[in-house]
Design goal:
The chain is of the alpha+beta class. Helices cover 34% and strands 21% of the residues. It is built from six helices and twelve strands. It has a five-stranded mixed β-sheet with strand order 3-2-1-5-8, with no helix packed on it. Strands 4-10-9-6-7 form a five-stranded mixed β-sheet. A two-stranded antiparallel sheet has the order 11-12. The chain is elongated. The structure holds dinuclear copper ion. Dinuclear copper ion binds next to loops.
């Protein structure tokens, strides 16, 4: 009836859920059963007269106080568990989540970013701080028993401690347009070592692409696209179209050949050589790009004739 329990408090959530479910079953039949029985037992018969009814103080006190105690008890039981699910431990690792139509981006403490793919180490608390670029979304990980709305212009958060290695699904649980049902991400829970390796190398997803295609993806993922156009229009930075192999004038009067070395230097030390007519505003991507990303971006820039 429930998805697998993938986090520390999944068991507690399920326990409350099942307790409430069975309590409802008992109360439903406890009330409906006698009601049906009485309807039958005291049905109309010619000549039978209903005796005069007053009230029964003991009975009325019992059926008022008992449900009251029950409801208050359930409230505090739920509240204490809910507080646990809301307040992450201080040492929790923090992952920034940005939802937009219709994908998820994740940003790690070291600045690495991924799209629709999130990795976390097993048995470590992790906190997701979430916001939206456009409309309402909802971060739902059934296996972890967490679910929270993501609201544009506001930060919401969830946290959990994953306990089960392997693949889990993140899905959007708030209707957000035609791509809503496709808005899913893979959550990989792995050992601490594997996680560190993944963070350091960026994983092996790039192997499924040509360097050029991988570069194209990186341009979007790493945010190059905000400043560097690919159609020749001038942005905050020079357009990439036709730039490879060109002699570029710099703001100190020198010129430089745009080759692999210059492209690499511009990513790592963007202030070293500023193209004439542009401001030195590009941040360094040292530590944010893996070797395959740099190769991919260079190949992609080369392809933009
Ligand atoms: Cu995003 Cu539904």
């Amino acid at each position: 009836m429930m998805p697998p329990q993938g986090s520390v408090f999944a068991g507690e959530v399920d326990f409350i859920y099942m307790a409430l479910f069975w309590l409802s079953v008992v109360l439903f039949w406890g009330i409906t059963g006698p009601a049906l029985y009485f309807a039958w037992r005291y049905r109309y018969k010619p000549g039978r007269v209903t005796p005069h009814q007053t009230h029964n103080t003991v009975l009325e006190i019992v059926w008022t106080v008992l449900p009251l105690v029950l409801c208050v008890g359930i409230f505090f039981w739920g509240l204490s568990s809910w507080m646990k699910s809301q307040v992450a431990p201080g040492e929790a690792m923090e992952i920034q989540v940005t939802a937009k139509q219709w994908l998820w981006t994740f940003e790690y403490p070291d600045g690495s970013r991924t799209v629709n793919d999130v990795h976390v180490p097993v048995n470590k608390a992790v906190r997701f701080v979430m916001t939206s670029d456009d409309v309402l979304h909802d971060f739902f990980v059934p296996d972890m028993r967490v679910k929270a709305d993501i609201v544009p212009g506001r930060y919401t958060q969830v946290w959990f401690t994953p306990t089960v290695l392997g693949l889990h699904t993140v899905t959007c649980a708030e209707y957000c347009g035609k791509g809503h049902s496709d808005m899913q991400a893979k959550l990989t829970v792995e050992s601490e070592d594997k996680y560190k390796e993944w963070i350091a190398t960026g994983g092996t997803e790039w192997m499924n692409y040509t360097p050029e295609d991988w570069g194209k993806i990186q341009r979007e993922e790493k945010g190059c696209a905000t400043c560097h156009s690919i159609d020749g229009t001038k942005g905050q930075g020079p357009s990439w179209k036709g730039i490879y192999g060109k002699m570029e004038k710099l703001n100190d009067g020198k010129t430089v050949l745009v080759d692999d070395a210059y492209i690499r230097e511009s990513m790592m030390f963007p202030q070293a050589k500023i193209v004439l007519g542009f401001d030195p505003i590009m941040p360094t991507f040292q530590g944010l790009l893996h070797e395959q990303d740099i190769r991919g971006l260079t190949a992609y820039i080369k392809s933009l004739k």
